[in-house]
């Protein structure tokens, strides 16, 4: 691999995957978390709030590389 090649997903692929994650993955994740919390006895509201905040942040951590730079212009657009 030469020094100017970029490893990983292209900008368009990251953009598509970010849409899939936001439109499909996130709702499925939300339903799963709410379902698991409903199976447990209802915790105090402050603890439930903390759990929702924590899982709201944790879902995106594995996908940081997909979302990085998606809101900016296509860096490869000027090269074509």
Word description of this protein:
By secondary structure, the chain is mainly α. It contains three helices and no strands. The radius of gyration is 18 Å and the shape is elongated.
So what's the overall shape?
elongated
User: Total strand count, please?
Assistant: 0
The whole-number mean of residue pLDDT values reads 79
**Count of helical stretches:** 3
Q: What percentage of residues falls in helices of 4 or more residues?
A: 55-70%
Low-confidence stretches: 1-5
Short key terms for the protein model shown above:
80 residues; mainly alpha; 3 helices; 59% helix; 0% strand
Question: How would you concisely characterize the structure shown here?
Answer:
The protein is an all-alpha fold and 80 residues long.
Topology:
Blueprint: H1 11-39, H2 45-58, H3 64-67
């Amino acid at each position: 691999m030469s020094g100017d090649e970029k490893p990983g997903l292209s900008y368009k692929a990251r953009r598509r995957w970010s849409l899939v994650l936001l439109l499909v993955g996130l709702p499925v994740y939300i339903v799963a978390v709410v379902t698991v919390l409903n199976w447990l006895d209802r915790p105090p509201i402050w603890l439930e709030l903390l759990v929702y905040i924590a899982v709201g942040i944790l879902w995106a951590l594995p996908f940081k590389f997909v979302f990085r730079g998606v809101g900016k212009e296509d860096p490869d657009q000027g090269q074509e």
